[in-house]
Amino acid sequence: MEEQSSHSMVAKIAGAAVTILAAMVARQVVNQAWKAFAGRPAPQPDNADDDSSLGELVAAAAAMGAVVGVSRVLATRGTTRYVAKIERKRRTDPL
Asked: Is 0.85 topped by the overall pTM?
């Protein structure tokens, strides 16, 4: 039972790491796409000097939220499936 909980903990840590990485990549994708379409960087919430309109801020936040949310779901599902596959293989092929 303890071995199973340690595998579960490894899966959670791996899932968190993959999710963070996916969110970082998604942010970069949105920022690059915004720059390609708008001709300037995407509005950033911590930039007080940004003169973006409210509509641009809302659009950027919605795009970022959607892309990061989808990337997190895909990363979490992918990691869960990968860990389950490893677990099935480990149970059928003991050392």
From this structure: no
Question: Token digits for 28?
Answer: 């970069």
- What is the distance between the alpha carbons of residues 18 and 77, in angstroms, rounded to a whole number? 10
pLDDT of 4 higher than 50? yes
* Residue 74 CA, distance from chain mean position: 8
CA 70/CA 17 separation, integer angstroms: 16
In b/e form, how buried is each residue of 23-47, taking b as 16+ CB within 10 angstroms? beebeeebbeebeeeeeeebbeeee
- According to the model, what pLDDT value does residue 82 have? 84
